[in-house]
Amino acid sequence: MASPIGQLLQKKSKTVLESWINxxxxxxxxxxxxxxxxxxxxxxxEFLQSVISILKKEDSxxxxxxxxxxxxxxxxxxxxxxxxxxYTPRETGVFVFSLKEAFLSVLxxxxxxxxxxxxxxxxxxxxxxxLAILTFETFISSREEVILRQTSEISEISTPVxxxxxxxxxxxxIGTLDSARTQVVMENLLMKIVExxxxxxxxxISGVPAVDSLVAQHLIKTxxxxxxxxxxxxxxxxxxEIAQTIVHLGIDLANINTKASLAHALRSAFxxxxxxxxxxxEKPKF
Amino acid sequence: MxxxxxxxxxxxxxxxxQVDLYDRLALNLESDLVNMIxxxxxxxxxxxxxxxxxxxxxxxxxxxxxxxxxKILDAHTVVVGMQPAVAITLIELGLPLSGVHTxxxxxKGMALLQEKLLLDSTVIADDTDDxx
Lengths: 286, 132
Prior knowledge:
The complex is a heterodimer of chains A (286) and B (132). Chain A has 286 residues and is an alpha/beta fold. Chain A contains ten helices and five strands. Chain A is 62% helix and 9% strand. With 132 residues, chain B is an alpha/beta fold. Chain B has a single domain, classed as Transcription Regulator spoIIAA (2-Layer Sandwich). Chain B is built from four helices and five strands. Chain B has helices at residues 23-40, 57-72, 84-92, 106-131; strands at 6-9, 12-16, 44-48, 76-80, 101-103. Chain B has a five-stranded mixed beta sheet with strand order 1-2-3-4-5, sandwiched between helices. The A-B interface holds A 183, 186-187, 190-191, 193-194, 197-199, 221, 224-231 and B 79-84, 86-88, 90-92, 96-97, 102-105, 108-109.
């Protein structure tokens, strides 16, 4: 048996849609430039139909029913796309919550004295709340997905291995070195050493904000691994504060070739490879 | 019994490990190599491990041992062609093989050995100069 409230809303669905879209557009928080009017209309219409089809059924609270699943699917899609486009939680939430307002305002006009039966309004409330919770879950999880993707992108971007000369590689490290990143850095470096047959690798740590014993441990590991491969490793870009910290922590870098700047490291790499950089002879004036 | 061939080339001994080392094989290699150095009074040992994909702490120790033993017998050891994964494993095992010389490939390893030998002979020449 179909529920009377559902039937009524189905008849009035045009009015509900209009009033819902108006409420959505009136909300100050909505960024108009992000979403065109048309798009709101299309999404709203689709979603409204699926919600009404739930309300038409007797067991509207059943979250397992095919109708509810269809509505959830549409809502998930809308929320995910909004989260990806950088909408605020408020803007996303308004989409669902304003539907409740639209339903009730339409129903008010239908019943005499504007008194919507308690059971019906409760039914609508419960359904919308269930959908709102779903929206937030989806919103947060899509945001987390974005964050995860960015994290992995950052770690990819921040460990480039540059071939600065024949047989010389440079690896500028930017950001804190944790175990996971050290692993990536080390692997990238060693692969590149094999690939380019380089004999010298310069690790530039001027972009590392702080060096503690753990970071130093990771640096030493990288240097030792490079050495095992048969290449020399120079650490450059050690800022005065970092030199102080290293000594205060009692970390022994005596076996590691360290240089103050990348330029110095490059110069000593040239010396190791018996290369020389000098000015060309001045050109004759005529 | 399996053996890893050791090739003599002038003053050097060449060892190419083409199979994954198991313990028995590694121990045999160690004793064979020491005997060969002694027999030919070789000045350098080059071990190519580019085909080795798996190492454990025992292999790491054997490599270190070989280097130390050859040092006592007055020969330099160069390990060449270590795979990145192998290098990372050895470091994670805490075996930086500090006594062993390393090179990227056989060519560079040979150059390194020759350099070391040249250095040794000049030192000896200097000494004799001083004496006369």
